[in-house]
Amino acid sequence: MNPGRRIGELDAIRGFALFGILITNVIVVSTLLTVSGDDGASLLFDGAVDNAVGVVVDALFLGKFFLLFSFLFGYSFTLQLDAAARAGARAVPRLLRRCAALFVIGLLHAAFLWFGDILTLYAGLCLILIVLRNIRPITAFIAGVGILLAPAALHLLPDDEDKAANVHAPGGSDDSLAFLDFSWVHEAFTGGPMDTLAAQLTVAPDFMGVIWSGQGPSALGMFLLGMAAGKIRFMNSPVLSAWSARLQWIGLLIGGPVVVWTIVVGLGDGDLPGYADAITTVTNPLITFFYAATIIRLAQGRAGARLVAALAPAGRMAATNYIAQSAVFMLIYTGYGFALVDRVPPLGVIAIALVTFAVQLAGSHWWLRRFKYGPVEWVLRAVTNARIPAWRRPS
User: Fold this and answer.
1) CA distances, 103 to each of 119, 127, 133 (Å)
2) 88, part of any domain
């Protein structure tokens, strides 16, 4: 097997992760921008269907797909180490340049398009992977599991028990979003282009703190699990099929009932108990691995080639597509463009997201038939290798 060959299943999982990230982000940000009242106590769209959409997205998407991207980032980190070894180059300078480029791209993304950017977090955590690059796979695995489980214990502290009944927007509790003046945020994002830009530049620094503190530990845990999997070449392993089946069943049997529970309680207008956060912190990674294992098993099935062909191109240019999703959202929903956020209910937001993703699948396929890399991937590769790579494919 060619050690430098791209792993189609890995790209397909990354393409699927893009879909989950898109659904999560559009619901989170559209909810935040339609909150009324300075205390964030009520939503513009609060009908039965609107609430059902929020509950289902919360249960199936929120807190799962950024973990999947994090695992893939950790796995890809080992591929970067392998690429440096094949090139006879020093890995650390290459990786530091890549981290710096990713951080700058993330800052620009957060400042101008999506204040919930995660690229800056990944760039920062990547520095930890560089330090730990030589640890054994079993050590990375144990550390990753420990880091993932630690927040669950924190959620069981007495102060957390009182949070269950609080109204909170997706992505953070009232306390974590206390810096937001919801009325001003709504007015600014539905004003003109300069109002939206001012809101982006104002909200982004504080919201980045929410992302770093809220998602940082879990992302690091998944980074380490991904690195452990990459070090043992899990995606090329003969045990891949057997372990994919096991991960499917574990995720389904342990995480599945929790998903059903949260949906039933949410649709019944009930409040989850205080320990629910601890439970979902444990089961979210299991659901994440269930999703990944399902894509792997489908990719190995009769229709596997078609599935990989559909999803992998989007996954190969994941950073470009991630930023493009933000651009589409801002153009449709905010003062950068049509400012429709008050006119599109959650179900409509999901519908637009599905169309956006379908266009990205087709557009990625079209692009990669003509070019070797997506635009953002080309920049990252150029900075990483400190030389300008060829872009166009031969005619």
Assistant:
1) 6, 11, 20
2) yes
The angle that helices 193-231 and 182-189 make with each other, rounded to 10 degrees, is: 100
Structural tokens at position 155: 């959620």
Low-confidence ranges of the chain (pLDDT < 50): 1, 160-174
Per residue in 63-98, pLDDT (tens digit) is: 899 999 999 999 999 999 998 998 888 999 999 999
Instruction: Report the distance separating Cα 175 and Cα 274, nearest Å.
Output: 15
Q: How far is it, in rounded angstroms, from Cα 321 to Cα 15?
A: 9
Number of domains in the chain: 1
Q: Alpha-carbon distance 62 to 207, whole Å?
A: 17
Nearest to 40 by CA among 175, 159, 214: 175
Tokens of 284: 């979210």
- Flag whether 224 is in a domain: yes
> Considering only CA atoms, which of 102, 317, 332 is closest in space to residue 196?
332
Q: Which domain holds residue 181?
A: 8-385
Residue with tokens 């899990």: 234
Yes or no: say if 95 and 46 are a contact pair by the CB < 8 Å rule: no
- The pairing of strands 42-43 and 35-36 is antiparallel
In a domain, 122, yes or no: yes
Domain presence at residue 183: yes
The pTM is what? 0.88
Alpha helix (H) ranges present in 170-317?
182-189, 193-231, 240-250, 256-267, 276-299, 304-316
Q: Name residue, tokens 């300078």.
A: 93
- For the chain, how are helix, strand and coil distributed in percent, rounded to 5? 75, 0, 25
Q: Which residues of 266-277 are buried (b: 16+ CB within 10 A; e: fewer)?
A: beeeeeeebebb
CA-nearest of 177, 219, 152 to 40 is 177
Q: Say what the pLDDT of residue 286 is.
A: 94
Phi/psi for 47 (5° steps) reads -75, 175
